[in-house]
Every structure is written in structure tokens, then in C-alpha cells.
Amino acid sequence: MMTEREFPNWETLYQEQPVENMPWFNPNLDPDVEEALINLELSNGSVLDLGTGPGTQAIALAERGFQVMGTDLSEAAIHQAATKANQKGLEISFEQDDILNSHLQQSFDLILDRGCFHVLPPHSYDTYVQTVANLLQPKRYLLLKCFSQEETREQGPYRFTPEEIQQIFKEQFALHSAKQTVYHGTLDPLPKALFCILEKQ
Length: 201
Ligand SMILES: C[S@@+](CC[C@H](N)C(=O)[O-])C[C@H]1O[C@@H](n2cnc3c(N)ncnc32)[C@H](O)[C@@H]1O
Fold this sequence. Notes:
This protein is α/β, with parallel strands linked by helices and 201 residues long. Helix content is 27%, strand content 28%. Strands 1, 2, 3, 4, 5, 6, 7 and 8 form an eight-stranded mixed beta sheet that branches. Residues 10, 24, 51-54, 56-57, 72-74, 77, 98-100, 114-116, 119 line the site of S-adenosylmethionine.
């Protein structure tokens, strides 16, 4: 049984702190996402950036020609991400949405979750998996970046092994690959992370 981890109030955090200082802030497309797009030969279609936060990944994907929607629990995060996209002249649909009580109706060609799943409580995993599966077309991919069990910091998100990811997602997804990597952001050293590609069955 995993011990429950504690997280900030996301709305207060985005209201009070500059996004550039947040541990997950990466102004560029995450290199693991970039590599996955190349390997899976994905260069267009609709993408949901789930738990988009500062919106940097949504923006980078829109700049590469994807049709992007970014959602987050925090209204303040969504507002800042939308402002940044507007300044760049990009058409990205940013919406406040709780993935555990989602109001989204669309289905996407690709879903990116860079750091949202690993802050959710373990009792919500079934809801998460079912919701994400409903939002994805069959045979399409969920790109999931989370902390790895190899990360030793005491504080922070939940950590996973490839076997745990496979177990959690197995009813709806096949684990295509799981790579030990780092979470590219503002922490030094960068946290150890797992980058998983899951295919919806
Ligand atoms: C670690 S941050 C990652 C942000 C962003 N994906 C990135 O890579 O910069 C996790 C994000 O998940 C969002 N979040 C937490 N719980 C959520 C939920 N239930 N539904 C949607 N977003 C959530 C937080 O507000 C936060 O922006």
C-alpha cells in the first residue's frame, strides 16, 4: 500500500508563483516526447496535453503542426498558458478540466500526460485510466511521463516501475515501451523519471 503523498493547492500555486520557477517548467518540447513523435512517425492530428500547467508542451506541439487542446485543474494555469499561446499567435484550445471528473467530449489522436498522473491519488487510478481511454481513439497512444521508482528524493510525486504502470493500465492499454529517463525541468539534479508509451486497445 502506497503512503499518500501531499501536493500543493494547484490553483493557489499558479496564482502565486511564476511558472518559470516551477520544478516541471521546461520551455522546450520534452526530449522524450520529441523522440516518441519521431519513432511513432506522428506529425499531425489532435493532441490533448493533459495537466498542461504552464502550457509549454502544448505550445511546442502546436508549433509542430498538431491541433492541440490543453487542460488543467487550475484556472490560473490555463489563463497564463492561453495568454502565452495568444502572444505567439497560436490557436490552442485551453480549458479548465479535472481529469478525475472530466467534461471533455472529444476523442483525440494522441494524449500527453507529462506529470499529471503522478500527482493523482492511487485510489483514483481506475477513474483516470477509464477517462483517458474514453478520450483516445483506438490504437492511438498515451505518452506518459512520471517519476521513476529510482528517484530517491523524499518529497514529490508518486514513483513507478514499468511493471506497476503495466498493471495499472492493463484493462485498457498495452505498454508499448517504458524508458528510464529524467524529468527535464528546473531541479538539480533532474529527477529520475519513467517515460511510457501506452497503446489504447
Ligand atoms: C507536475 S505539473 C506538470 C505540468 C505540465 N504538464 C508540464 O509538463 O509543464 C502537474 C499538473 O497537473 C495539474 N493537475 C493536478 N491534478 C489535476 C487533475 N485532477 N486534473 C487536471 N490537471 C491536474 C496541476 O495543476 C499541474 O499543472
